[in-house]
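testing teh design pipeline on a random one, pls ignore if ur not involved
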């Protein structure tokens, strides 16, 4: 056996051992191994763009709303929402619901009364740029529209984080998220064009200031 082959086998074995013991993938020269990546919710926010950024991965904290069962997805005056189990997100079924009507979901704030920074995560979709609003006890504290990713090197359903600071929160107050689907007319689907379903992560973070 040549020395080159021995070196290759040894390098590959060390890389596999490193990934098995640390959970961090290595570039072995045979292609990067992605199966060993830790959960998407355990990674560090990497890319910032002003007040909003597209993180490669999103951190979680104990001060987050991460239980989808705590959300009421049927609000009077709004289209009903649904929970997308595959993407761990709340969304609108644009096949069954009007595409020009907002949906909403509500829950209660269970943390201590205080001033918080809110981090809200939407999911980017190539077929449309959905809009979002966040209200605290009917007072709007956040409103934005997703940026366009069609034709860009950004993966489908990439997380898009928007942050708002200095929000007064009272224990037991109502949190309401409103979201509107959208089509940019760029992705053909059936006899028309596809619609983004305004997906967003129910893992909203509240960081004490």
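output:
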């Amino acid at each position: 056996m040549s020395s080159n082959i021995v070196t290759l086998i040894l390098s590959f074995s060390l890389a596999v051992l490193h990934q098995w013991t640390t959970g961090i993938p290595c570039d072995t020269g045979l292609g990067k191994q992605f199966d060993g990546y830790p959960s998407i919710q355990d990674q560090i926010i990497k890319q910032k763009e002003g007040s909003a950024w597209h993180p490669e991965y999103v951190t979680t904290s104990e001060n987050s709303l991460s239980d989808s069962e705590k959300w009421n997805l049927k609000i009077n005056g709004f289209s009903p929402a649904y929970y997308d189990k595959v993407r761990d997100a709340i969304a609108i079924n644009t096949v069954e619901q009007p595409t020009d009507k907002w949906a909403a979901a509500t829950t209660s704030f269970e943390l201590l009364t205080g001033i918080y920074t809110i981090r809200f995560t939407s999911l980017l979709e190539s077929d449309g740029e959905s809009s979002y609003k966040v209200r605290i006890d009917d007072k709007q504290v956040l409103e934005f529209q997703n940026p366009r990713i069609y034709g860009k090197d950004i993966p489908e359903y990439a997380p898009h984080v928007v942050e708002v600071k200095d929000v007064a929160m009272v224990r037991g107050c109502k949190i309401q998220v409103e979201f509107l689907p959208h089509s940019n007319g760029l992705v053909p689907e059936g006899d028309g064009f596809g619609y983004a379903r305004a997906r967003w992560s129910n893992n909203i973070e509240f960081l004490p200031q």
